[in-house]
């Protein structure tokens, strides 16, 4: 039995806009395992991003409990969550979210400056195949390159978990595959527990497990024994 | 360097124009605080050091003729440490090659050659020998103004004897840091000098052997000054004592006091305005940066930066602006302080200027810059800290515009859509609109508060010279002469009209309030030196009482009809009760007026005069001077036109410098506020304005929206600025008013118009600079970027 990294118990999330209440999560019970690459699939508004934000310590659950190993995230305050994000989590977002005034290397350095046991920014960029573009600013790079910088930034701290929210959402098929390859390499070589949100059903084929979301609930979980390489995926 | 710090520096560099605009405003505050605070300290320190090193006395008194034996009794007064008695007389000088009569004061140097108090500093040459009767030293500014050097000789009329004197040295004295002749408004070193001569020579010339008429006392720190003054008055009363007084009534001292007070007022009023505006600008700019950085803030938090680190990041950005302003202010302030110090050194006769740029003033001005900017940035920075990471990562909700009654009103006005956009935006950000208006209003206010001085000066000159003192010259006599001698004055060459005037030293009392004044008395119907009421009408002083200037009446808390006590000083030391029969508005001095006959009847003497006001035939002025140089009774001479000219020149020069400085300041404020406002608008509306361009609006139509918003606020700022300006002017008038003079509050429409024009023009230029960026906007690029 693989080690459990994330465990959620009856997690709900209600957005109260004053006029109406939106149930983004309606009771999620889920476990994610060490070293696994899972893909979270589902239509817009099904609760994938909300769950990822809660797992990453970016947001609070309305009800229910969430553990990262023995650490109960739902019991942590702002300060505790910041500490948790700083020490354990790497994020990759759909719109890269690079700081435009910093070069690729410096964007990675943002993380290595504050992490406990980071790799060198150069090493992280090498891992995503951007060793030669280190001193370029985001505006000088393509979307795929920018996203790979974002991945390098996420892994530079040697996080235990890598949470990716639509990492290929803004990319075409070819550059998207490059990004997926980078993720796969990280997962294989570092054994980082990786969760990838996507709209793109094709991507599920590279995952160990696929978790389907519907209306704020986990509709079903599918174990994928025959993972294919990202290079074989296209859309 | 940490990556976050690199981002900080690059953000700062990107913001340079806006940061500079803010830094300039902040720098103004820092520089002014540094200068005024520095000068305040420099004047106080210099004076204190000078006084201490040269043993400036604490109490002064004069009498007609007191015996030397009295000195011992003075020394025995409780709390008196040392006593210096001397002879102090007026003298008429005939300088080589100078047509005009020069007057001066001559002071005796003690026989021993060793002075106890008010030690002069020998700047060049030496003191006169105690045994020589033809040697004299003069105050340095007088020597320089007249081109005199040690070894030069000139003639002096000492009590009627014409003597040739040799100049031995040029001195400075703590008693004469500000040297002003009788009846003059400003120092005139060419026409009035201080002379020091051996006691033997002065006593002999003025028949004062074994006697003195002026005394200075140094007190123990623990002494009760008022007690000493009372005892001294008792001792001197039989010898025609004119009333002892402390330093604060000593002329030179009180002039410097007034200047120090003015520096203090300046330090209080102006810098807070700049610090406040800088704080507002910083809050506006940092607020916008944080809005633009929203996603980055979310990212920083997602990767583990704490709220405190994020907050600090933006505070540091504000801090860099503060540091830029601080350094700018320190640089300009240091330079300005030295320039102002030079100005003071020439205006006041200090032997040196103790000018330590105190670390304290640098620290205070710098800390205030950091604090005000920090306060300005704190709201936005704390907001950034509080922003939840998940919220920050998602784009902000579009600003919510709601229909209000105002919108219905706007609809009724059938405004164009661009106008609608401007007005909605103003209402959408009411605080920002309000503060922008306030900032521009303060620029208007600063201009009004500075320009009013010029109008006030004109009013002061008109009132003082054109209405009140219409004589060409005033002769002062010491001591008083009988009024009958006026006929002789009228016979002097070139004199067309001569009118007599008496000055009687007195203490006016009302209840517990009292004031030392010189009562002016003349006959009814005089036409030259008149008493003029606030409406500009010459008034005849009634025979049955006293007329007071408004400030004096205020200080004594009396109105028309009240009875006050007048204790006359000098010869007949008697106290009389007089009724206040009128109050007049005056700017210079604390005037008190009586009828000549009434006053002399109280003094039980035939009318006497202290001064004669003359109307002259200008062609005969040299002849008049030739006679005056031989007139021993002459104690002082004021040529009104020359005084008026030098008064006007001196003040006009200072006013011009000041007005220029304030003009620069106002333009900087306007630029700081308008430029930043327009930049932020452009940043917020880039997409909106680009959309309009794509829809077919011309550049001009689009820039109208941008410029229109700034200009509407600038126009709204005008009435508020006028009001604030009038308020600041009133505060300045209040703060700078002293016993010596009061600046009238004269607010002319032209001053308001000028202030408004300057600020509106500067606002327009500032927004036109931003408009150029609008022209360069890459439409496609703007529409592509995610807001």
Automatic annotation (TrEMBL), chain A:
Gene Ontology CC terms, in alphabetical order:
membrane protein complex
Q: Which InterPro entries match?
A: AAA+_ATPase, ABC_transporter-like_ATP-bd, ABC_transporter-like_CS, MacB-like_ATP-bd, P-loop_NTPase
Keyword line: ATP-binding, Cell inner membrane, Cell membrane, Membrane, Nucleotide-binding, Transport
UniProt KW Nucleotide-binding keyword = yes
Q: Which SUPFAM superfamilies match?
A: P-loop containing nucleoside triphosphate hydrolases
Q: Looking at the keywords, is ATP-binding present?
A: yes
ABC transporter domain location is 6-233
Where do the coiled-coil regions begin and end? none
GO function terms (MF aspect): ATP binding; ATP hydrolysis activity; transmembrane transporter activity
State the family it belongs to. Answer: Belongs to the ABC transporter superfamily. Macrolide exporter (TC 3.A.1.122) family.
State the protein's name. Putative ABC transport system ATP-binding protein
Automatic annotation (TrEMBL), chain B:
Major place of localization? membrane
Q: According to its record, what are the GO cellular component terms? A: plasma membrane protein complex
Subcellular localization? Cell membrane
Q: Which residues cross the membrane?
A: 20-40, 273-291, 312-333, 353-377, 429-453, 653-675, 702-732, 752-770
UniProtKB keywords: Cell membrane, Membrane, Transmembrane, Transmembrane helix
Q: How is this protein named in the record?
A: Putative ABC transport system permease protein
Which family does this protein fall into? Answer: Belongs to the ABC-4 integral membrane protein family. LolC/E subfamily.
What are the residue boundaries of the MacB-like periplasmic core domain, all occurrences included?
Answer: 433-606
How this chain sits in the membrane, per its record, is:
Multi-pass membrane protein
Q: Name the domain of life this protein comes from.
A: Bacteria
Question: Which intervals hold domain ABC3 transporter permease C-terminal?
Answer: 273-377, 661-773
Instruction: Tell me one GO biological process term.
Output: lipoprotein localization to outer membrane
